[in-house]
User: Fold this.
Amino acid sequence: MKRAYVLFLCLIMAFAAIGCGKEEDDYGKVDHIKNSVEDEPMTPTATPTPTEDPVKPLVLCLDPGHGGRWEGAIYHGQQERYLVLQLSKEIRAYINEHYPEITVYLTREDNETFSSDIGPDLRQRVEFAKNCGAQILVSIHLNASEKHNLRGTMVCISKQPNIHDISVELANKLLDATASIGIPKNGNTGYVTRNSGDTFDENGVPVDYYAICRHGASLNIPAVILESCFMDNDKDYEFIKDDAAIKRLAAVEAEAMARFMIEKFSKK
Ligand SMILES: [Zn+2]
Assistant:
């Protein structure tokens, strides 16, 4: 009889302990949700659980090169500033349709923006990307060579250690994407770095020659210049010759950018 009584007491205590534990879990959950709301803007459908970290929104910034009075390259009666704007808008449209979890911003929507001096203009483009909360900036260009004898995709990246390695990864994804539709890599690797010959940081180390990459390094945002192909090469021109060609090029580049962003940033 006494043994049965002790067993009964033990059972009551065990239930009480389970109850307390559950209560703590619930409070923990409430706190977590409250913190999430304060830290991050949440969509109405987002329901974080205690085991999941809040996910930062994925933001991609595209920079259609040139614009304003900066025409860029001109071949086949086409101006680079218009073609890269069209290509950028097609990339955004593809990502909006297939990867709605990624927000895409363009540094310019028309050809009137960015008509100031080229120096501050390039800095402003990277500052814009930073202010958007973008994880990466891809500056969209088309190439041309002095002797008109080069072809292929070239990605200009920073040499600075804070953004170099991730820029190489992104460059390789973009190069694989354009290769998949028949555009070869330019040079051995397809990506290039270049140091400034006359500008150095406080430690005497030369900064990047390419302004978009240089400002990307200083603002700590991976910023690359994607030169999809050479406008002045007949074989390359096939890939940008009309609306359908530009849409096809945009689709493979958009797919590469979206997958890269999801792989690198969706759980951070
Ligand atoms: Zn350009």
Notes: Residues 1-48 have pLDDT under 50 and may be disordered. The beta strands are 58-64, 74-75, 78-79, 102-106, 136-143, 154-156, 191-192, 195-200, 206-208, 223-230. The pocket of zinc ion is lined by residues 65-66, 72, 80, 141 (CB under 6 Å).
